[in-house]
């Protein structure tokens, strides 16, 4: 490649060394007789001109195959050059490096780019300040947790992808594993997509009881803050990282609460990136999914920081996995459960009851629960199955007066764990306890008893 450098100073020389290769043919044209450091070595020919004339320019034979660099302290000095080049039949691409404010209508001169070198470098430097800040925070976070032998990573009662991904990022940051630093909830993962996410990423969220909290040396909260939980449950929290507003009244050793982020996953991505921690494909997929779901694909309450995290994670993520998470597919075996559900359904008013019997996978239950609201006039549904000696019930409400979460808690929390939101809830308890409590033996009787209990309390 032939390069022509026109310069009225050599101040930006260090910045262009990366642009020009040793094999390139370089012609330097010093314009306006300035003195320069003799130590600057030029890889090619050097011309010195007081002024540049069209005739002299024509002799250089510059064409669109070449590249022109202009290094200008006084941009006006190069007007004639620009004019000449633009009128040429074969105008070369021109990079105009300056430190002056300059307006060139690039619409009329598509071959010219003006680069303000100080502001470009300044932008990079400003970003470095920010990076140092984040890296220091990442280090402080790591130091807060690194000495602990066990770390409890707490999320909301129904952890969403943002919380799960942020928990995984904490594990990556401290080199923790699911045993010594589990991602935990006092509730359970209810949404079908989130269950699919856990399965695909081969990770887990552990349901813990309040009594277990004390077994961990340090507590981290991601995407949630201590006042969310019952008073007195979390007296000593080491780390809180969240993008929801700060509800005053608590302190933690390390706190990063920032509402200008669309997702906690973005905050965690910044820590990992600034801290130089490797982001595996799985982690990138999780974090990207966290950013996407919390910001509704950068449409809701997102900032340029979310966009930056998004573009950093995008090439690292597994996109096939990502699409499976948002639209879990049905395999033939799962399809059989759908058939079974349709066969074994009972409608009582607008309440739909589905009994699946024994299932080989528990995630089919919430999937069918989502689907169940599409059947007929259903406004409230309960999909029940037996998985590994436990009865699992997924409740869905779409316009019924009955609060699914409250109903689950009232009916089943005495036998196991149960709860959720108004529109979706889950209960899980041992089959044996249910059989004893209700004095029933066969699976058929269990089914009938459940139907009786539920259809009595779900309002029409
Ligand atoms: Mn969030």
Topology (elements, then pairings):
Elements: E1 2-7, H1 13-16, E2 25-31, E3 45-49, H2 54-60, E4 67-72, H3 79-87, E5 94-98, E6 112-116, H4 117-146, E7 151-154, H5 161-174, E8 183-185, H6 192-201, E9 205-207, E10 218-222, E11 239-242, E12 254-257, H7 264-274, H8 281-294, H9 304-313, H10 319-326, H11 332-343, E13 345-348, E14 351-358, H12 364-372, E15 380-387, E16 390-397, H13 404-412, E17 417-420, E18 424-430, H14 431-438, H15 443-457
Parallel strand pairs: 1-2, 1-4, 2-3, 4-5, 5-6, 7-8, 7-10, 8-9, 10-11, 11-12, 14-15
Antiparallel strand pairs: 13-14, 15-16, 16-18, 17-18
Manganese (II) ion (MN) binds at residues 162, 223, 243, 263-264, 294.
Mean pLDDT: 91
- Helix count equals 15
What CATH architecture label of the largest domain applies? Alpha-Beta Complex
Radius of gyration: 32 Å
Helical amount: 25-40%
User: Hetero groups bound?
Assistant: manganese (II) ion
Alpha-beta classification = alpha/beta
Number of domains: 3
Largest sheet: 6 strands, parallel
Number of β-strand runs: 18
Shape descriptor reads elongated
**How big a fraction of the residues is strand?**
15-25%
User: What's the CATH C level of the largest domain?
Assistant: Alpha Beta
Q: What is the terminal-to-terminal distance?
A: 79 Å
The CATH fourth-level homologous superfamily of the largest domain = inorganic pyrophosphatase (n-terminal core)
Give the strand order of the largest sheet, numbering strands 1, 2, ... along the chain. 3-2-1-4-5-6
Low-confidence segments, given as residue ranges, are none
CATH topology of the largest domain: inorganic pyrophosphatase (n-terminal core)
């Amino acid at each position: 490649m032939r390069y022509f450098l026109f310069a009225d100073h050599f101040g930006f020389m260090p910045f262009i060394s990366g642009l020009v290769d040793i094999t390139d043919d370089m012609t330097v044209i010093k314009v306006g007789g300035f003195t320069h450091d003799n130590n600057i070595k030029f890889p090619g020919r050097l011309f010195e001109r007081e002024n540049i004339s069209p005739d002299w320019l024509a002799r250089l034979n510059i064409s669109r195959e070449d590249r022109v660099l202009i290094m200008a302290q006084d941009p006006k000095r190069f007007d004639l050059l620009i004019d000449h080049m633009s009128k040429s039949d074969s105008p070369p691409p021109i990079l105009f490096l300056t430190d002056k404010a300059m307006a060139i209508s690039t619409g009329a001169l598509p071959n010219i780019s003006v680069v303000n070198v100080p502001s470009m470098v300044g932008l990079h430097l400003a970003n470095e300040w920010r990076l140092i800040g984040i890296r220091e925070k990442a280090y402080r976070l790591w130091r807060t947790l690194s000495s602990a032998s066990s770390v409890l990573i707490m999320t909301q009662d129904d952890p969403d992808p943002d919380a799960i991904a942020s928990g995984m990022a904490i594990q990556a940051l401290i080199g923790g594993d699911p045993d010594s630093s589990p991602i935990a909830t006092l509730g359970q993962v209810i949404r079908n997509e989130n269950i699919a996410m856990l399965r695909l990423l081969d990770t887990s969220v552990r349901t813990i009881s309040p009594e277990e909290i004390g077994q961990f040396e340090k507590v981290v909260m991601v995407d949630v803050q201590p006042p969310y939980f019952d008073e007195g449950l979390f007296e000593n929290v080491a780390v809180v990282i969240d993008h929801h507003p700060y509800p005053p009244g608590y302190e933690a050793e390390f706190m990063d609460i920032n509402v200008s982020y669309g997702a906690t996953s973005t905050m965690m991505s910044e820590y990992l990136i600034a801290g130089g921690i490797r982001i595996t494909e799985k982690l990138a997929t999780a974090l990207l999914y966290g950013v996407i779901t919390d910001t509704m694909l950068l449409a809701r309450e997102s900032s340029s920081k979310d966009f930056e995290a998004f573009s950093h994670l995008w090439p690292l993520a597994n996109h096939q996995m990502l699409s499976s998470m948002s639209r879990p597919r049905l395999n033939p075996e799962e399809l059989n459960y759908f058939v079974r559900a349709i066969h074994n359904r009972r409608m009582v008013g607008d309440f739909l009851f589905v009994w699946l019997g024994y299932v080989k996978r528990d995630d089919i239950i919430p999937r069918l629960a989502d689907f169940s609201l599409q059947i007929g006039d259903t406004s409230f549904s309960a999909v029940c199955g037996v998985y590994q000696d436990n009865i699992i019930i997924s409740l869905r409400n779409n316009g019924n007066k009955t609060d699914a979460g409250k109903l689950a808690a009232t009916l089943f929390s005495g036998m196991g764990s149960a709860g959720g939101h108004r529109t979706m809830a889950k209960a899980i308890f041992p089959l044996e306890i249910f059989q004893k409590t209700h004095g029933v033996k066969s699976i058929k009787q269990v089914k009938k008893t459940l139907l009786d209990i539920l259809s009595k309390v779900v309002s029409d």
